[in-house]
Amino acid sequence: MGELIFVGLGLFDEGDISLKGLEAVRRADHVYIELYTSLMGGLSIRRFERSIGRDVTLISRRVLEDEDGEPILEKAERGRVVLLVPGDPLIATTHVDLRIKAEKRGIETRIIHGASILSAAIGLSGLQNYRFGKSVTIPFPYEGYISETPYDVIKENKARELHTLCFLDIKAEEEKYMTINEGLRILLNLEEKRREGVLTGKSLAVGIARAGSKDVRVKASYVWELLQYDFGSAPHTLIIPSERLHFMEAEALINLAGAPEEVRGMVG
Fold first, then answer.
1. CA distances from 131 to 46, 128, 148, 242 (A)
2. pLDDT by residue (tens digit) across 152-162?
C-alpha cells in the first residue's frame, strides 16, 4: 500500500518547513510541490533541492484540478509520495479533494502541518482570534463583473461585531497578485454601488504584507490613508475590523500596527 503525505511549507521560504516535513521529504520516493494556491515570496525550488539533495517536481493547477491529481495518485499507489503545499496543507479545498480521492483508492494519507496565514495575519494584527467571523477572498474582477460576496461577508461580520480576514486573489500562472490597495478599491467600488455604509474611506482596516519574512509590514489606519501607503511586494492580506474593539485590541493596533490614537474611541 502506498502513501501520500501532505507537507506544509509555511509562510515565506523553504526555511519555514518543519523538521518532520524535511524528514518526510528525504524519505519519499517522489516529491511534488504546488505553488498556485499561495505565494511564497522567498521560496527558491533550486535552493531547496540543493538543501535536500533531490529533485522536486512542480505540479500545476491543471494537473491537480483538471486531471484530479492522477499523476500523483498513480505514484502514491506504488510508493511514498510527498506533496509540498504553501502554508498549512488542507486550507485549500483542492488538497482536501485530493486526500479524499487517495483514501478511496486505498492510499494511506498523512498530514504534516505548517504555519498558516490564517493564524499569522490575525496574530500580527493584534486583534483577538475569537472575534473573527467568516473569512472571504476578494477576487479580481472578471470581464467587468465584481463579486459582491466580500461586501456581504464584511457586512454580516460587522453586524455581529466581528472582524473579517480577507484573502487577496492570486493568479499564479500570470504572476498576478492582488495588493491591499487593489482590494480596498474593489470594496470601495462595491460600497459606491450598494451604499450601505459597510466600508468607506473613514473605515478602519489593517494591511499585512509578507507575513513570515524579515521584511513583514503591518499597518492599521483608515482606508483613505492605506490607499496611499506603500506595502511593498506581495503577498498581501487585508483585515477589516469590527466597529467595536476590545481595549487590548486598540492598544495593539496603536502600538504594534501604527494605528491612529483615535481608535481608542472604538473601544466598547
1. 41, 6, 23, 9
2. 999 999 999 99
* 199-248 tens-digit pLDDT: 999 999 999 999 999 999 999 999 999 999 999 999 999 999 999 999 99
Q: How many C-beta atoms surround the C-beta of residue 175 within 10 A?
A: 9
Cell of 120: 499569522
| Maximum alpha-carbon separation in the chain | 62
pLDDT tens for each residue of 84-113? 999 999 988 889 999 999 999 999 999 999
* E-assigned strand segments in the chain: 3-8, 30-34, 57-59, 80-85, 108-112, 136-138, 164-168, 170-171, 176-177, 204-209, 217-222, 236-240
The domains of the chain, with CATH numbers, are 3-112 (3.40.1010.10), 117-266 (3.30.950.10)
